[in-house]
Structure formats: C-alpha cells, structure tokens
User: Fold this.
Amino acid sequence: MTVLILNGPNLNLLGVREPELYGRQDYAALTALVEETCRTEGIEMEMVQSNHEGVLVDTIQQALGRFDGIVINPAAYTHTSVAILDALKAVALPAVEVHISDVSQREAFRQISYAGQACVKTFMGLGLEGYRQAILYLKEYLNEKR
Ligand code: DQA
Assistant:
C-alpha cells in the first residue's frame, strides 16, 4: 500500500506560524510522525508540501497509478480551490482530509471545504495527531475495498 501525504500553503511554517492554533511542533516533526506511522503500519509513503495551487493539482494528477490513496491538508486552498476538488475527483483515489485546527469553530470563510467534497473522511482539531488518524483510517478503508 502506497499513500501520498499532501500539504498545502504555509504548512512548511508549522511551529512558527500561529502556534496557538497550529501548535509548536514544526514541519520536520510532522514528517517524523507521518514516517513513523507509515513504517509501523507497513505503508509506503511520499510527503509533499507546496505553497502553489498548480503544484498541488499536478501532484494529485501524478498520483494516479502511483498511489493507492491520498491524505490531504489543502490548508487555505481548502476554502477556495475548485481546481483541487476537480483534481481529486479526476483521479478518483480515496482521499482523507486533515486539518490541524478545528476549522468548524473558526471564521465563516473557513466553513466551506471544496476538497472535502471529494474525501471519504475528515479529521480536524486533533493537531498533528490528525495525520496519524487519517493514515490509519485510509489504511482500513483501502483494506476493506480490496
Ligand atoms: C488548516 C486550516 C485552514 O483554514 C488554514 O488556512 C490552514 C491550515 C489546518 O490544518 O488547520 O492553513 O488547513
């Protein structure tokens, strides 16, 4: 089983960026958590972060035939990007959405998730642990489908 972990804009600034919302652990800590989870679960993974919408779209398109599923935190593009939604729909790989913060309790403009409409499940407000939950959920989902 091979999984793509995709992170959107500003997530490279984890630890520095609004720590009261996103915590004090940095992107390297997130990478370590994801790597450790995948190693324990026997999952191969690649983790990509980009601040550019088009790169995220390209990466989703290129996932077809290479990955069994996607864990995605589209960050701010969650709330704006029909292109990312369409890319997820186009490749039709099972995708799980993650948000570090609880977006349901934040500003009105964060209440819409375009990407989430192509995802089988969303984890939010769990901090970095949400990524672990998303990976475990995706593994279970893919195993059931087989
Ligand atoms: C986020 C929530 C988004 O609203 C925000 O734009 C982010 C991070 C989260 O992980 O909580 O950049 O996706």
